[in-house]
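Trying the structure run again after the queue cleared.
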Amino acid sequence: MTPVLTGSGQAFPPAMDQAELWRDHFASRSGSATELAERIWRSSGIETRHAVADPRHDDISQVGTGERMQRFIEAAMPLGADAVTDALKAAGLPASEVGLFAVVSCTGYTTPGLDIRLADQLGMSPAVQRLHLGHMGCYAALPGLGAVSDFVTARQKPAVLLCAELTSLHVQPATDDLQQVVAHALFSDAVAAVVLEPDAAAGWEVLATEAVTDPTTSALMTWDVTDLGFKMGLSPEVPAVLGRHAAPAIEALLAPRGLRVEDVAHWAVHPGGRRIVEVVGQALGLAEDQLAPSYQVLRDAGNCSSATVLLVLDQVTAEPGEYAVAMAFGPGLTLYSTLLRRR
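Done. Tokens:
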């Protein structure tokens, strides 16, 4: 019994122009670091981002975490409903047939959560099983994909995975801290959903998922809950560490299945930032066209935390029998990778 990804859907709040966002808001809020901050923004590889809270008109940098969480559920509900509805429609699956509904987020928490509220709103069965994966960061879509794949295999029922990340709700007060400058320059809002079904005739077979964590570098990326939302810690050393671990991590995924990097036609590499895509591509010897979907999503949507790798995978067009690898990175430092094959 093989789990097959049969449908996907995405939803975005209003768009913002990256250059205008710098000029009209953040340029005046980076203090002594303005010149360096501007270089960071201009070299981000991002042209467009999306936000439920555009700081030019809706500055919540001094708003408490409780209010931000309330705004999360209010904004995530319609976006999540749109993404899941589109994914189910693409799969040709009624909501009532979903056996497991899994929700991933590191940017918002309420109880009852998105899983309960959306399951009811969309017409899923009262007996649907639910799972919430929280605060894992940008790589969380892939352990989420692994969990729903295991369910589909064991229970022979369809499952839906929803990644809902509204990073704009965690904008921080004005600062010249370069780690915050980078976070403000990169992160964006998006919601992405996928449907998995047992042994479907067409789609992406989910074959395997592997993880590698280097706990000696855990201080390089953090996501702390504070009284003013969640605060990112992001060291400039992160790309180098990921580049060092990328090749061994992919070998651990491919070698047990008799595959090499050369056997994988398509790559959905999480664009945590432009430099991360470059370093991982160099470590694996990937061609520029294999990284094009990652750069495209970075350009058009920014870093949308866990939703991003699903957005990249949705840009991949493959022939039956071709392999793809999805890779994502986050706190730990952790590298997750998933092997897929097109049916």
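The chain has a mean pLDDT of 97. Worth checking whether this holds up in the mutant runs.
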